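Write out this protein's structure.
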Amino acid sequence: MSFLLKDEAYDKIIQMINDKKLIYGEIYSLNVLTATMDMSKTPVRDAIQKLVDEKRIDILPSRGIRLHQITKEEVMQHYHFSCAIEGYCVATLAKTYQKDKNNPSVKKLKKLMEQMEKMLDEQKNFNEYFAVDQQFHLELLESLKDPYFSSLKHSSMGFYNHPEIQFTDNKLSRKEVCECHRKILSAICEGDSADAYEALLEHSYVMLKAF
């Protein structure tokens, strides 16, 4: 039961991040957080520890918690990981698409782009938009049909599962992110592995600048 409660607490905190109820730079006490979530301290504390391990939350002794303040070194690690892993995936997918125009991953990416383009209004539900954003990137990993690369979606590296990145002072617009995706997909569909790779690098740099 406690395991299930920990998972519930984890999901609630993630939801609070997505809903911008937890903001960069703000410090939150465990007591206030548990009261807001209407849960006991133990599962919330366990969930927080998991988020600390994922480098999404920092614990400030005797003060409380806050969203993780990513260091310059960590940002560069995320950037290099994204460029290396996703860059390889898009370049490979472009070559694959040249041989098979019915590639299922490209079909999924096209559908995801259509969905994202309907969610560019900043007033529309962020969670739905971000889910599509993430699915686009996860499909790039899945396109290799390699269990190891597929498992990287759970990695703490890259820019996966970090919606708070889009809430920083250098806020990214949905249109800006969508345009990056459009360039990547366009290059893949043209079978141009070099352009696909460059488009992915450009997208990673856009994310890098947000910090």
